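Re: the pair you flagged

First of the two:
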Amino acid sequence: RWTFAILPDERVRVRVKAAPAGLHDVRIERGAARPLPEDVAIATWDGAAWCAVLNVSGIPDPEGLWIKGRRADSTVWWHRGTYALWPMGTQLPVRVEDWATARIERDRVYESGVVMVRTVPLTGLAAGAAGVRAALELAPATPPLRGPAEVTLSLPADHPRDRMGVYRRDGDADRWEWADAEWDSTARTFRAASTRLGQFAMLRDTTPPAVRVVPPLVRPRRGDYSTWRLSAHANDAASGVAGRASAFTVDGARVPTEWDAEQHVLRWRPLAAPAVGRHHYQLEVQDRVGNRTVRTGAFVIASR
């Protein structure tokens, strides 16, 4: 597992975890065949990974990185980091495949440097989500950028636009999150802006939100102000709930409904509890790609 930290003066700190135990004479080097001494660095063990600082001038460089060493029995071991090295903070667009590009211009970074780019298999998809192609990885994911980078992903001609969106995560161990990308129907591309690098992927969400309405109080509590509410727990594991498009309708009238994204709760909290009697409601919950769930029911307010 490769991780990176961008340093001043065109340098990058490289750490490699999960190499075989007992290695010695370990070095990390550029993949390009250039006879420059700064392309190779002796790696040291920091207690969890092999670490080295490399000079990264002479980019773009599609040849990636290597870690090489010897096992305890002196046999040679090596592993390739299949990253393309691209400059960050320039007008040059980052490209690793013909379907994926990124722009990280000078005013979007605190200091010019290098971005490590590759495509990786899609993993960790939520139930009901399906991927298109691989994921584009731009490393390192931290620290955040000064301004948003622009990531453009092209949808294949044989894939419909319906229920599609762009998602982002820091790395393999993290959850995919909605990236709020803009769709260009002419170019058939999604364009997302993000102040964090990481992994970006096009996913289709085909599952509507899961919804559970909480029965409201039959007898509202007395007090200086009303605490009565009609609420529901709502969750969408893929694209997420679209709070503005989700609401209660009570007795035929749409009512102001707040979306608590941290608690995953939709609430209607009127200034006063509804009148005594039986009331009918409908709840419509929509996710960000248009899947929706509808619940209907009734509640009773008893005389106080």
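Second of the two:
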Amino acid sequence: LETMNARGRNTLAYNMLTGQIEPSTDLARRLYQCMICLNCKYTCPAQVDLSHVVHAARVRLTEQGFLPDIHKSLIAGIGERGNPFGEDPAKRADVFPKDFQAKDTADTLFYMGCVSSYQDLKIIPSIMKVARTAGEDFTALGQGEVCCGYLAYLVGDMKAFDRSRQAAMDRIKKTGAKTVVATCAGCYKTFHDLYPKTGGDWEGVKVLHAIEYIDGLMKAGRLNFKPAAETTKVAYHDPCDIGRHMMMYEPPRDVLKALPGVELVEFPLNRNLAKCCGGGGGVKAFDNPLSGDIAFERVLQAVGVGADAVVSACPSCKNSLNQGAARARKEKKGKVKVLDLVELVAQSLA
């Protein structure tokens, strides 16, 4: 069906936004199945930025009462508990190292994000290990952290996004941090790109993704790595939010190439042409089977290039690719490990 491809979605959105067709549940279904991954932009000679078109259509759908129920539930969780999963805010710091002591102020603030905090056990301890090894002055908000609001933005609820932006920026500014480091690709895009465009003021504050931060520490000679006993072939998966959306392609590869025992192998489709992991655009919650199929196909591509592991720089990618890898094992299509790049760096430290 053409309504499942970029041209079809663009046509649907245009016709709705110009009043030629009315918003409907079926129209919403098609527009909420878009990953907003921007792959279409870089495979199309016209370079149409469909993410902006679909986002505008989703805002209209939300205003007209067609926001899917699953997204209403997730946004309610953000408003009531500071995260889309409806988890207890007191549990947000459960994965922090036991000896971590938050500071009221610090030069660097790690903003961990909801997925790293509630759905992952390794990313947060890993970034803290790296920072401690480098002798960095840092802190994290822990239980005081709230959702950056990216999900609300993605699905078109701009009022909820504005509330999240204000709450997050208020908490960040109280720390006096000069550098904010995001472990999540979505948080990074939100802080670096969306907040300034929607009224957020970062004057005097630098926003970095964790991989940019680590790349800087490595190039300054502040991290040492132990020799590797064996070589691991690693396929790097470009997250859409820091890849096509923010054009960050080389820092992750520079980090991988500097790690002992790591051989970087590229997906057949990488950088601008990289395929989505299936976790983008709010689709994982809205259409999990579709998301799972896309993740599975990406994992099969990693198997095809002989990778021992797939490494990304986004906790949502890690989550999706782990599901794809589990299906590949179950269907006897191949075995690959799935890691966040921050984990691999922490494991390699001397």
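The mean pLDDT is 95.

-B.
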